[in-house]
């Protein structure tokens, strides 16, 4: 089956899997073509300003009202939601983890979700959670939707097929997918077990950052975002519907497949994006710019420039800055930084930060290059140098990130992370302004 996508970010898309299924010129005809039901899926309040108003119209065999009812509670203790009760006594520190091993037993995208941190508060729809997902088994006749937030999914190993009500997406190791709040979907591994990172955004949807003086091109370009075309199945068999709602999980059984949307139109839809299509803009003179120049997507708050979540990447790029310390500088940040590595090496930490690994530099906790990176950057020859085959990323939020017990007790938590800065000597010599080692 060839998957087809429509290009663009936040477009008013329209797509039909059966010719003539999409009503033209109106949303709610007295009778929809082919006996379909019309249903609106609203991702923003009806009265949101035009630029942030998001909704889609779905034309389906049965309305979603038949998907919910008589829900039974489901226990998924590893998927936490903010505010979560902190059940560990871990002291405050900069933290780093090696990759979480993929289990031998069957875990699906829902049962294999492991929350690392939560931030903010789901009840007021601010903040986010960071998870590691582990998938060894497909969701079979099972569909999930999240009322708490949208999910940004970044595989680090393996390929995922994400079947949603609005169409099918496939994502591999340099891709991300975003599934909006309320969109039903299931996940299947395509080529063996898969592991990756998830940001669950409780706040306003991810959008493209303004480019300011950069202009109309570069960074993440809208045409590189891909939304699937309509796809449906006609299956009158048992399906489980799992809903995540204010941190709780609720399941019910229905007698048909909810992937029955034959046509849809609107601007509220899942999408995928290949991170290698990001066109980085950086320092071509001197100094190291703030990482915000690498923002792929931002989820704003009501306060200008203060994101609920920024999704930032550190892709392949040339380093050319002259007379400059090229890696990230030492710093403390009011925003809380969770990092992951999809592949390759990260230039501030060439050792110890592994693909599939993670680090957390929380609100106002100092961090920066390790000693080896400092020495290399301070004395290396400053010829143009290309960082190749690398893709690190950061989920950065204005809210402090609270560690789950799972994260605090993970066997892959490094107990010596802070030692990477221990060897930074005192070099100060008041008689040598031209310090050269
Ligand atoms: O801490 C990090 O490694 C992420 C980061 C990278 C960078 O280039 C500048 C600031 C920053 O927080
Ligand atoms: Fe940082």
Automatic annotation (TrEMBL):
UniProt keyword Oxidoreductase, yes or no: yes
Residues binding homogentisate: 346, 367
Biological processes, Gene Ontology terms: L-phenylalanine catabolic process; L-tyrosine catabolic process
Residue sites binding Fe cation per the record: 331, 337, 385
One cellular component (GO) term of this entry: cytoplasm
Annotated EC: 1.13.11.5
A Pfam family reported for this protein in Swiss-Prot or TrEMBL: HgmA_N
Domain Homogentisate 1,2-dioxygenase C-terminal: residue ranges: 277-428
Active-site residues from the entry: 288
Domain called Homogentisate 1,2-dioxygenase N-terminal: residue spans: 4-275
Single GO MF annotation: homogentisate 1,2-dioxygenase activity
Pathway of action: Amino-acid degradation; L-phenylalanine degradation; acetoacetate and fumarate from L-phenylalanine: step 4/6
PANTHER family for the chain: HOMOGENTISATE 1,2-DIOXYGENASE
The protein's assembly and partners: Hexamer; dimer of trimers.
Function recorded in the entry: Involved in the catabolism of homogentisate (2,5-dihydroxyphenylacetate or 2,5-OH-PhAc), a central intermediate in the degradation of phenylalanine and tyrosine. Catalyzes the oxidative ring cleavage of the aromatic ring of homogentisate to yield maleylacetoacetate.
Name of this chain's protein: Homogentisate 1,2-dioxygenase
Organism: Roseiterribacter gracilis
């Amino acid at each position: 089956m060839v998957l087809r996508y429509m290009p663009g970010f936040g477009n008013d898309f329209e797509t039909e899997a059966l010719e003539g299924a999409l009503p033209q010129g109106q949303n709610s005809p007295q009778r929809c073509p082919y006996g379909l039901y019309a249903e609106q899926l609203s991702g923003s309040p009806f009265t949101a300003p035009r630029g942030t108003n998001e909704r889609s119209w779905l034309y389906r065999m049965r309305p979603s009202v038949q998907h919910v009812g008589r829900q039974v509670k489901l226990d998924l203790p590893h998927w936490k939601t903010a505010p979560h009760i902190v059940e560990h006594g871990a002291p405050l520190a900069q933290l780093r983890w090696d990759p979480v091993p993929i289990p031998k037993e069957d875990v699906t995208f829902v049962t294999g979700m492991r929350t690392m941190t939560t931030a903010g508060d789901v009840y007021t729809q601010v903040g986010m959670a960071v998870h590691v997902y582990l998938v060894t088994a497909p969701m079979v006749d099972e569909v999930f939707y999240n009322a708490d937030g949208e999910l940004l999914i970044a595989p680090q190993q393996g390929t995922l097929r994400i079947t949603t009500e609005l169409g099918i997406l496939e994502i591999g190791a340099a891709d991300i997918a975003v599934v909006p709040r309320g969109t039903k979907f299931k996940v299947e591994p395509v080529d063996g077990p898969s592991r990756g990172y998830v940001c669950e955004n409780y706040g306003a949807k991810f959008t493209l950052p303004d480019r300011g003086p950069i202009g109309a091109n570069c960074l993440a370009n809208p045409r590189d975002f891909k939304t699937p075309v309509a796809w449906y199945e006609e299956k009158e068999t048992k399906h489980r519907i799992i809903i995540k709602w204010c941190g709780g999980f609720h399941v019910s059984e229905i007698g048909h497949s909810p992937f029955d949307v034959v046509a849809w139109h609107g601007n509220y839809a899942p999408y995928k994006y290949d991170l290698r299509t990001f066109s980085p803009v950086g320092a071509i003179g001197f100094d190291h710019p703030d990482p915000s120049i690498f923002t792929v997507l931002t989820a704003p708050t009501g306060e200008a420039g203060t994101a609920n979540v920024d999704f930032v990447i550190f892709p392949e790029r040339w380093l050319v800055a002259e007379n400059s310390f090229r890696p990230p500088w030492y710093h403390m940040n009011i925003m809380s930084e969770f990092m992951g590595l999809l592949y390759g090496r990260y230039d501030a930490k060439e050792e110890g930060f592994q693909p599939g690994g993670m680090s957390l530099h929380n609100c106002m906790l100092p961090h920066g290059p390790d000693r080896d990176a400092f020495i290399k950057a301070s004395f290396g020859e400053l010829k143009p140098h290309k960082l190749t085959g690398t893709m690190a990323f950061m989920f950065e939020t204005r809210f402090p990130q609270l560690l789950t017990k799972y994260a605090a007790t993970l066997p892959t938590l490094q107990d010596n992370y802070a030692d990477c800065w221990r060897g930074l000597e005192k070099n100060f010599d008041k008689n040598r302004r031209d310090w050269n080692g």
